[in-house]
Amino acid sequence: MDAxxxxxxWHPTWVNCDKFATNRRGSVRFSGVLxxxxxxxxxxxxxxxxxxxxxxxxxISLEVSCCFQNSPASVKKSGVIQDALDDSLxxxxxxxxxxxxxxxxxxxxxxxxxxxxxxVGRILSxxxxxxxxxxxxxxxxxxxxxxxxxxxxxxxxxFFRDKETEALRKVxxxxxxxxxxGGGAVIRPINWKYMHKGISVWLDVPLEALARRIAxxxxxxxxxxxxxxxxxxxxxxxxxxYASARVSLENIAAKLGxxxxxxxxPTAIAIEALQQIEVFLKRL
Length: 284
Description:
alpha/beta, five-stranded antiparallel beta sheet
């Protein structure tokens, strides 16, 4: 009998997602019944908890009671197994944990051009139930739909920066927004005043990875690559450090065992962003 129970414990079993119940602390519980050639009925209850929000492996504690040929439960086994959860479930769990601390505050994503602010921002807004705004798009709307590249050509950078500051001022008066800012929004102190009404998150991407991303899409949509002199990455590094939270893609890659940060999924980056936001908010 013991051998049969052990065999069932080790046998891979899938449980449908609708059998899972989550709570705000990141726990998952489920129950189910396993069968072995119609002879062994095994009731399974499990408790899942992630010790750190960034981990991708979960420890599940199991207590198993068995009945054989309709006899009362005669054997109990307990143990732990390791199970890999889908990132979407982890993301949802993290959002539920962070949401009470956010209390409706806006989230501002800052970082160099090509750092993935728009992509990650859309994921965060969806999982949190927030609205998403791209600051460059807001500027374009304010200038009769003129593309950012044309605004730079026709009016210059100072004109664009003024419109950008005005856009940030307006969104800072709102709640429950995720805002993707332009790469240079951090150079004006007044912009930090508006962003610090909410939570600012720096997506810190290595320069080499940024270069590869930008090269892949071309530079026509990145006017500062043509207009700015000097190393923008170095000049803005100190300014980005004023953000409430930092999301280092190199750190994420190290934790997940990924060699190239470009292979990280936007969802994995969003999970790390929520973790760092929670760390910041708990310090307040």
